[in-house]
Amino acid sequence: MTEQEAKKLAEPIVKEVVNCMAEGRYDLIPDYAGFQDESITIEDFKGWAEDYLKDNELSHYDKYGVPNNFQPQYDKSLYHQFSVYLYNNGNGFEVDYDLTTDSEINDLTLIMEFLFVDNGVKAYIVDIHVL
């Protein structure tokens, strides 16, 4: 699997999770992804996400696909808001998605894992944190 193929597979799920966060519909997130750490509840996740907004005086998260104004020009690479990291063992891949507020990076990254299972792929939220 290539990074492009992995992105195509993951993007609809990441989009739904990000949109649930943007719309405050955290209760719908388990329809799209579980938590890698099974002891984490959706209320835990909501608390972390909402506390981050409050602590940083941000009003909301942008929906998936809102234009991102952060476009630095690095010497040998470009910044990507959606990054894919393929596992060497072929069992899956990780996605990092940089969240935004009003089209500006807010320093919070949604980290998800996608594992291949017999009937397709299983999505897990690994973490949301400042990278």
List keywords for this structure.
single chain; 131 residues; alpha+beta; Nuclear Transport Factor 2, Chain: A; 5-stranded mixed β-sheet; 2 helices
Query: What level of helicity do the residues show?
Result: 25-40%
Question: Tally the helices: what do you get?
Answer: 2
First-to-last CA distance: 26 Å
Q: Which fold name is given in CATH as the topology?
A: Nuclear Transport Factor 2, Chain: A
Evaluate the radius of gyration. Answer: 15 Å
How many independent structural domains? Answer: 1
Poorly predicted runs:
none
Order of strands across the main sheet: 1-5-4-3-2
Note the overall shape. Answer: globular
Number of strands: 5
CATH A-level architecture: Roll
Order of helices and strands: HEHEEEE
Largest sheet: 5 strands, mixed
The amount of beta strand, in percent, is 25-35%
Structural class: alpha+beta
CATH class: Alpha Beta
Mean pLDDT, as a whole number? Answer: 92
